[in-house]
Amino acid sequence: AQKVTQAQTEISVVEKEDVTLDCVYETRDTTYYLFWYKQPPSGELVFLIRRNSFDEQNEISGRYSWNFQKSTSSFNFTITASQVVDSAVYFCALSEVGNFNKFYFGSGTKLNVKP
Amino acid sequence: DTGVSQDPRHKITKRGQNVTFRCDPISEHNRLYWYRQTLGQGPEFLTYFQNEAQLEKSRLLSDRFSAERPKGSFSTLEIQRTEQGDSAMYLCASSWGLAGADTQYFGPGTRLTVL
Q: Do the beta carbons of residue B105 and residue A47 sit within 8 Å?
């Protein structure tokens, strides 16, 4: 079974629009971590955020914000006032403590921001 | 400040040949991971080292694959008798941690093409 689901394969927006990338996860562990990474065309995965299962506070970092809801097993990522430089593939990942910290990645959402 | 480096960045080989990839983690990171990423998919876990000990291997890692991390520093991933299905991006990540999940930092990857 897929542990992390990113149902949106590709999203296209026009610059300055807000966009939300969805992430739904599945785990039986009570302690786990969730991550978002950005993969620009160059290919290198860039770390964006880490969240542990005990901290459901939403987080904002500049134009980026994250909404973690354990009740729906979701960890969604919103970009406000998108820019062309935000164009990339975004991955959500789950890490279960005690499971050697390996990441389970979703299949990614490709974001196209058009000028 | 140097991040995770991987060498080579690209490798083209003929089916049946052996290939070896190298990963240099961020210095003093005790954990090292290998992932494989195929087109349009998220990275999939292959194996994990804590210092020099290989603590977990995915079932994706067939007996043609072997990984080492001598002295707990750099790591190598060897694929013997390559097959066309081995064509993928091979990603290395490192982190520092003693317990719990920690943030993994990824290298630029080695893109393997098997002809």
A: yes
Distance CA B44, CA B91 (A): 9
Q: Which residues of B touch A31 (CB under 8 A)?
A: 100
Q: Closest to B48 (Cβ–Cβ): which among A4, A100, A106?
A: A100
Distance CA B105, CA B88 (A): 19
- Tokens matching residue A8: 């949106």
Confidence (pLDDT) at A98: 73
Amino acid at B85: G
**Pairing mode, strands A19-21 and A32-39:** unpaired
Residue B37 C-alpha, separation from nearest chain A C-alpha, in angstroms: 10
Q: Which pLDDT tens digit goes with each residue over A95-115?
A: 988 777 789 999 999 999 999
Interchain contact B104–A (C-beta under 8 A): yes
DSSP per position, B6-67: EE-SEEEE-TT--EEEEEEPPTT--EEEEEEE-TTS--EEEEEEETTEEEEE-TTS-TTEEE
